[in-house]
Predict the 3D structure of the following.
Amino acid sequence: MEEVEATATVDALRRANIPVVTVAVSDNVQIKGATGQILLADSLISEVNTDDADWLIIPGGDPGAQNLFANNDVKDKIMAHYRKNGRIASICAGPAVVLAPLGVLKDKKATCYPGLGDAINSNGGEYVKQTVVTEPNLITSEGPGTTLPFAIEIIRAAKGDKAAETVASGMLVME
């Protein structure tokens, strides 16, 4: 994954008292990020049950997004969540590489890392060049530099404007 997208999103959500479980898509909770940083996940994909998850958040990164799409457990969990109208957020390559080919973005506006928008369009969605795009049950964002506005929008959708503004203000997020 792209480290800043994962860690800053988790940080902001936890500041809003939103429970977060980070998940490694491997047999080890130790994850090597896109820039080589080593992070520890809370759990393994084989150990998590997402049936009662409010949100599934898909980070980007190269080759992280490709690794997520190659994992059948990940795809099954995303599709089960999507079919029950669960909320999904994704950033950077995640919308184009993971969500678009699964059909999650069909008939929706979404954004992603610049240069990958054709994958959204070719899978029935509408690529929008925008920092953060919010649709019902879906939030997408461009990449590492847009992570905090992305996280604030997830907070806004989960807990309302006041919680989002409180976290944004406390973190000095420029909106």
